[in-house]
Each structure stands twice: as C-alpha cells, then as structure tokens.
Design a protein that fits this description.
Blueprint lengths: L18 E6 L8 E9 L12 E5 L19
Antiparallel strand pairs: 1-2, 2-3
Length: 77
C-alpha cells in the first residue's frame, strides 16, 4: 500500500468487514494481484480488558479460510 487512507464501509452491526481485499494492478497489464488483510483486535485496555478497536493485518497467503458453519460436520480424515 502506498500510504493512502481508504474509506471502510461499516456493516449493519457497526463493525468493519472481517476481510479487506485490495486489488493491485500488474505493471505488465496482466491479472491484478489481490492483497488480503484480516481484521483483528487493535489491543485491550489494561484495567478492564476492553477491546480498543480494530486494525488490519496482512495475510501473506492471500487466501481466506473456508466458512465453517456451527451445524456442519467436521471434515473426515
């Protein structure tokens, strides 16, 4: 990223999106590279342990984990 601040839309609950994808165009005109960032807690207060906010951490693998619903069976080995 080049230091610009991008607006982040909030969802109906007031939280930013869990994953943030930034397409970066290729210099040779090929397919764009997608940078993936995951929302994580920014920290916690010392006294009460309350969450201070959110920050985005870079996910170098570039893939999101599969969605796991609570009612689905675990994968078989």
């Amino acid at each position: 990223m080049d230091g610009r601040v991008l607006p982040v839309l909030l969802g109906p609950t007031g939280h930013p999106p869990k994953w943030y994808e930034i397409p970066v165009p290729a210099p040779d005109g090929g397919p764009p590279t997608v940078l993936l960032y995951e929302r994580v807690p920014a920290g916690y207060s010392k006294r009460l342990g309350l969450q201070k906010g959110w920050k985005y951490d870079f996910r170098p693998s570039g893939t999101k984990p599969k969605i796991r619903w609570p009612w689905t069976k675990p994968p078989r080995p």
